[in-house]
Amino acid sequence: MKKLIAAVTIFALSCFFASTALAKKITVACDTNFPPFEFKDPKTGKHTGFDVELWDAIAKELGLDYELQPMDFNGIIPGLQSGQLDVGIAGMTIKPERAKVIDFSDGYYKAGLLLLVRTDNTDINGVEDLKNKVVATKLGTTSPDFLKENAATKETKLYPNNDAMFLELMSGGADAVLFDSPVVSDFMMKTGKDKVKVVGPLYQGQDYGIGFPKNSELVAKVNGALKTLRENGSYNELYMKWFGTEPK
Asked: Do 112 and 93 form a contact (C-beta atoms < 8 A)?
């Protein structure tokens, strides 16, 4: 009887600790400034955007309690590797090198790279024209690698956030910006309207994925939630809200 009582007690405690672990608040990292995916709303002071609202929909679907942690993009992958972060959603391209150190969800957004110049620039019409030019882009992203492999730039200036690289272009400190297509398009249509233009084609088609520490049990659950949101129309609604078009 004593053995039976001990076994039941151990089982009950195991269930308690397991449920507590599953119910804990998880830490979800996003970029500090990556419109329209994530940015601080000047009216509310809170972070919003496609990524932020998509994750909120996923969390509600899974019944997850979470804390959003805006941070510099180049700190997200190390944070996932160290276990300080549970999730990272920040327009992260699914790359083989990254997949060696973190796990990714299924792709949730198809993007690419665009080349942006000032409207009065007539010298640059594509990456082939970047020889001996100064190009600004974002630290820790796929753009520097692409430039290294495909363009003989005079200098590639790396910045921790979008505002700095666009400011460098507008002030004449850089001849061009190469970066993710949705961010470049958003800047061109809003802040940079009539001041900048996109030249050349869409380079390096790529999928964005949600990042996790290696072997995270959340990966399969999040993939299931993404599938549900696509099927019930919630994903399409968010996509239309933030990009003004149906997802391709």
From this structure: no
Q: How far apart are CA 156 and CA 131, in angstroms?
A: 11
Joined tokens for residue 28: 């979800």
Strands 196-212 and 103-104: antiparallel
Which stretches within the chain are classed as H helix?
2-23, 50-62, 76-82, 96-99, 143-150, 162-170, 181-189, 218-231, 234-243
Per-residue pLDDT tens digits of the chain, which is 248 residues long: 555 444 444 444 444 443 334 457 999 999 988 888 999 999 999 999 999 999 999 999 999 999 999 999 999 999 999 999 999 999 999 989 999 999 999 999 988 899 999 999 999 999 999 999 999 999 988 899 999 999 989 999 999 989 999 999 999 999 999 998 888 988 998 899 999 999 999 898 889 999 999 999 999 999 999 999 999 999 999 999 998 777 76
Q: How far is CA 24 from CA 8, 18, 21, 66, 84, in A?
A: 24, 10, 5, 8, 14
Residues whose CB falls within 8 Å of the CB of residue 153, separated by 6 or more in sequence, listed in order = 130, 131, 132, 133, 134, 135, 147
Give residues with Cβ within 8 angstroms of 188, minimum separation 6.
116, 196, 197, 198
Instruction: Quote the DSSP letter at residue 55.
Output: H
